[in-house]
Amino acid sequence: MKTLPTFIATSVVRGSQQGESHGGIYLVDFEKQIAKLMVDWNDSGIDFTGRGWDRGLRGIEFSGGEIFIAASDEIFVYDSQFNVKRSYKNYFLKHAHEINKHENLLFVTSTGCDSILVFDLDRDEFTRGIHLRKAPKGWKSQLFDPQTEDGPEMANNLHLNNVRCSKKGLFTSGLRTDALIPLG
C-alpha cells in the first residue's frame, strides 16, 4: 500500500494581542493524520494597525536543501530542522503574499507596492522589480531597481497575491485585477 506524504504548511492568522501566536509553520503528516507546529509565529514586532497586513507566514519554496518562506516584509530561509539560517528584507517588499521559484529566481508578490520582486538565489539579492498598474487600454508594467529607493510608492491598488513563473511566462493576479495577467 502506498504511504501518504508529509507536507509543510503555513498559516495566515493574526492573534488579537501582541505576544499571541499568529500562526506558524507546520509539518502535516497525512499518513499519521497529525500536524506538528515547527515554528510559532509570535513576533513582537507585528503591526496591529488596520486590517490584515501582517497575518503570519505566506508562500513556501525550496532551493538547495533550504526552505524559503515569505513573511509580510521579509523572506526567511530555514534549514530542514526549521532553524532560521538568514533572512532578506527590501524597501519595496511590503505585505508579501506568495512566492514562486523558477530556475534560480524567486518571484515574490509585494502586495503593498503593486509589484513583483525578483530575488536571485545565486546572487543572494533582490535584482529586479516589476510594478504593475491598470491603464485605459490594458495592463502596464514598469521595471525598477529594488536596490535603490527609486520605484513605486506604497499603494495596494491591485492587492496582488499570486505569482507564477514557468517556461510559459510570468503571470500574476490579485483581488482587484479580475484577471490572470501575463507579464511576458
List keywords for this structure.
184 residues, mainly beta, four-stranded antiparallel β-sheet, Lipocalin, 2 domains, five-stranded antiparallel β-sheet
Could you walk me through the main structural features you see in this protein, from its secondary elements to its overall organization?
The chain is mainly β. The protein folds into two domains: 1-57, no CATH class; 64-184, Lipocalin, CATH 2.40.128. It contains no helices and 15 strands. The protein has strands at 6-10, 24-29, 34-40, 60-63, 66-70, 75-78, 84-88, 96-102, 105-110, 115-120, 125-135, 138-144, 160-166, 169-174, 181-182. The termini are far apart.
Q: What is the domain tally?
A: 2
Instruction: Give the N-to-C terminal Cα separation.
Output: 44 Å
Query: What is the percentage of strand-forming residues?
Result: over 45%
| Helix coverage percent | under 10%
Strand order of the largest sheet: 8-9-10-11-12
Overall geometric form: globular
CATH architecture descriptor name of the largest domain: Beta Barrel
| Count of alpha and pi helical runs | 0
Order of helices and strands: EEEEEEEEEEEEEEE
Tell me the radius of gyration: 17 Å
Q: In this structure, how is the largest beta sheet organized?
A: 5 strands, antiparallel
Extract low-pLDDT stretches.
48-52
SS elements, strand count: 15
CATH C-level category of the largest domain: Mainly Beta
Secondary structure class reads mainly beta
